Recover the amino acids of this structure.
C-alpha cells in the first residue's frame, strides 16, 4: 500500500519567488475574487461604462456593468452623462431591462417607483395608501431613497465611472502615456458606434487580463499574425508597463515588408506557413493610415478594458467579471462620425481580425476556457513568469512576460498578498 | 407572370446542402454556395435590429469567405467540435424572376469533448439568392443570431 501524500490546502500567501511565480489559487478562490471586486472594481478605480455615441440624445440609455453590478449610463436633459446602479432603491429589482433605448425617466417595473435621469426618486404609487389605509410612514424621505449614483468621468468619447470619492481624477488615474494613447483614438473626432460582439468566456478574468499582457504567446498561438507579418518577434515591438504595473501599452510600427523576410526568429516559429496567401489583402494591411503614425497597438486601462487598434479596426474590449470562473467580453467597435463609405467598409472587414470569431483572438478564449478547470484542479500549483528576466521594466521585444510581472507587482501591493 | 427563380422545395434543398457541408466540416466546399460579389455575415440580432453594421463574421465578396475558410482550416487553433444544423421554416419572401429573398430558422448544436452538447446559436437566415449557370447561389446571406452572447468562440461559419 502506498501512502499518498496528503495534500495540504494551499496557504493563501504568495510564493517566495515573488512576481516570477503566480499561485493558481488566485484564479478560483471565492474570497480572493470578492476582495478583488471590493479593492478594484468597487474601489478607487475608473471603470469603463461606454461610449458617448451610444447615448446620443437626452434620455438615451445603455445598460452596462461595473464589476458584477448592473448600471445604467444615461444622458441627462442638460446633455451630461449620468451613471446609476440598475437596482431599485426599494427592493433591489432590475429597473432597466433593455440593452439600449430611450426613456423620459427611469421607472421600476416591480412597484413603479420612478426616478429622474439623475437617479433621484420622484414618486411612488400609493405613497399615502388607498382609502385611508396603508401608504408610507409620514417621515419617509424620498430624497434618501434615490438610485446609487456613481462618479462619472468623460474623456473624449469615452465614459468612465467610479464608486469611490477618493479615486484620483481620471487624468491622474491613467497617467500621461495612457491618456495620450486614449486621446489618439477617442478625443480628436466625434465617435460613431459600429456595433457590439458579446462573448462568454469560462475563465477567471485575470487569465484574460494576463493574456493581453502576453506578447510571447501572440506569434506562437495566433499563427495568423505571424503568417501575414502583422506582428512578429523580429518586428519593431514595445511592451511598456505603466503606473506601477496598473496599466500597460504595447505597440508596433507596421512594416509591410516583414512578411517577405525570414530570420533566425521567424524560423523558430513553427506556425509560420509562408505559402499561405490571403485573397483580400485589405483585411490585413493599413490601407488608410488614419493616425499618420504607422502605429498599431493596444493598451490596458485597469481594471476593465483593453483598447485596441488593428489597422482601421477600433475596439474596446470590456471585461465583465461573472464570478471566479467566468467573464463576459463586451466588444464595442467604433469609428468616427465623419467616416466615408470606404472607411466604414474597411472597419467592418478588419473587424474579422478581433472578436469572438477573430482571426487573431478566437484562440484566446479557446485556450483560457480549457485552462480554467486545470488551474482549479491544482490550486497549489504555480505559474512560471521568467521570460525576459525577472524585472518589470519596459522592454522592446515580444519575448517577455514583463507586463504580467508588473501587473502582479501592482496586484500584490493592492491586494496585500 | 414573371418567371420564378426557384421553387420552395429547391430553396430548402439548397439550404440543406449548404448546412451539410458545414456539418461535415467540408469548409473548402462552402465558398461555392456564394456569388463572386456576395455579402456573407454572421450578425447578432442586437446589432441587426438596431441598424448597427458590425458582424463577428463579415465577408464582403467570395474572396473573404475563401480567406476565412483557409484561415480556419490552415492556421486557426480550436478545440475539436461537431456541429449539427437544424433548419426549419424555409420561406420565400419574394421572387422577381431574378432574385429570391428567403428566410429560415436555424439551430446549431455544438458538441465538444468532455461536455454535453449545447446550443451554439439559434436564429434566422435572411438571404438573397440568384441563379448562376443553372446553380443557386447566395448573393447575400445574413445569419442573424438571437443569442445575447457567443459561447466561448465562433469558429465555423453559421
Amino acid at each position: 500500500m502506498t501512502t499518498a501524500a496528503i495534500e495540504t490546502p494551499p496557504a493563501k500567501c504568495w510564493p517566495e519567488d515573488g512576481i516570477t511565480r503566480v499561485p493558481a489559487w488566485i484564479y478560483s478562490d471565492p474570497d480572493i475574487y470578492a476582495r478583488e471586486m471590493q479593492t478594484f472594481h468597487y474601489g478607487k478605480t475608473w471603470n469603463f461604462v461606454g461610449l458617448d455615441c451610444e447615448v446620443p440624445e437626452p434620455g438615451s440609455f445603455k445598460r452596462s456593468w461595473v464589476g458584477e453590478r448592473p448600471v445604467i449610463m444615461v444622458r441627462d436633459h442638460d446633455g451630461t452623462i449620468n451613471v446609476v446602479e440598475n437596482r431599485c432603491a426599494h427592493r433591489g429589482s432590475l429597473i432597466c431591462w433593455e440593452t439600449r433605448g430611450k426613456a423620459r425617466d427611469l421607472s421600476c417595473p416591480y412597484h413603479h417607483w420612478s426616478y429622474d435621469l439623475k437617479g433621484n426618486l420622484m414618486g411612488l404609487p400609493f405613497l399615502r395608501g388607498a382609502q385611508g389605509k396603508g401608504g408610507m410612514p409620514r417621515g419617509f424621505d424620498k430624497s434618501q431613497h434615490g438610485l446609487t449614483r456613481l462618479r462619472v468621468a468623460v474623456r473624449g468619447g469615452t465614459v468612465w465611472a467610479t464608486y469611490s470619492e477618493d479615486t484620483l481624477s481620471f487624468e491622474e488615474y491613467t497617467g500621461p502615456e495612457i491618456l495620450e494613447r486614449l486621446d489618439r483614438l477617442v478625443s480628436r473626432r466625434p465617435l460613431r458606434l459600429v456595433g457590439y460582439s458579446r462573448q462568454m468566456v469560462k475563465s477567471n478574468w485575470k487569465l484574460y487580463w494576463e493574456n493581453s499582457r502576453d506578447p510571447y504567446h501572440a506569434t506562437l498561438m495566433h499563427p495568423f499574425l505571424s503568417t501575414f507579418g502583422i506582428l512578429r518577434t523580429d518586428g519593431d515591438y514595445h511592451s511598456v508597463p505603466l503606473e506601477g504595473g496598473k496599466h500597460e501599452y504595447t505597440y508596433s510600427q507596421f512594416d509591410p515588408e516583414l512578411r517577405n523576410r525570414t530570420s533566425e526568429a521567424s524560423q523558430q516559429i513553427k506556425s509560420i506557413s509562408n505559402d499561405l496567401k490571403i485573397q483580400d489583402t485589405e483585411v490585413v494591411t493599413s490601407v488608410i493610415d488614419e493616425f499618420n503614425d504607422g502605429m498599431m497597438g493596444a493598451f490596458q486601462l485597469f481594471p476593465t478594458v483593453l483598447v485596441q487598434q488593428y489597422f482601421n479596426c477600433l475596439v474596446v474590449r470590456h471585461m465583465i467579471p461573472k464570478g471566479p470562473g467566468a467573464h463576459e467580453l463586451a466588444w464595442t467597435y467604433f469609428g468616427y462620425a465623419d467616416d466615408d463609405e470606404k472607411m466604414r467598409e474597411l472597419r467592418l472587414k478588419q473587424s474579422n481580425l478581433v472578436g469572438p470569431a477573430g482571426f487573431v483572438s478566437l484562440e484566446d478564449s479557446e485556450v483560457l476556457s480549457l485552462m480554467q478547470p486545470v488551474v482549479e484542479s491544482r490550486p497549489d500549483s504555480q505559474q512560471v513568469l521568467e521570460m525576459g528576466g525577472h524585472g518589470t521594466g519596459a522592454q522592446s521585444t515580444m519575448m517577455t512576460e514583463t507586463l504580467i510581472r508588473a501587473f502582479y507587482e501592482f496586484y500584490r501591493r493592492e491586494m496585500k498578498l | 407572370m414573371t418567371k420564378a427563380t426557384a421553387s420552395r422545395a429547391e430553396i430548402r434543398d439548397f439550404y440543406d446542402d449548404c448546412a451539410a457541408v458545414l456539418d461535415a466540416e467540408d469548409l473548402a466546399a462552402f465558398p461555392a454556395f456564394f456569388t463572386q460579389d456576395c455579402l456573407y455575415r454572421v450578425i447578432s440580432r442586437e446589432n441587426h435590429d438596431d441598424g448597427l453594421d458590425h458582424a463577428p463574421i463579415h465577408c464582403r465578396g467570395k474572396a473573404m469567405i475563401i480567406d476565412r475558410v483557409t484561415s480556419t482550416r490552415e492556421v486557426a487553433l480550436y478545440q475539436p467540435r461537431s456541429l449539427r444544423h437544424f433548419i426549419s421554416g424555409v420561406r420565400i419572401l419574394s421572387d422577381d424572376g431574378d432574385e429570391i429573398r428567403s428566410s429560415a430558422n436555424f439551430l446549431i448544436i455544438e458538441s465538444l469533448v468532455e461536455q454535453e452538447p449545447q446550443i451554439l446559436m439559434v436564429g434566422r437566415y435572411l438571404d438573397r439568392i440568384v441563379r448562376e449557370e443553372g446553380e443557386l447561389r447566395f448573393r447575400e446571406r445574413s445569419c442573424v443570431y438571437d443569442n445575447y452572447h457567443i459561447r466561448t468562440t465562433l469558429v465555423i461559419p453559421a
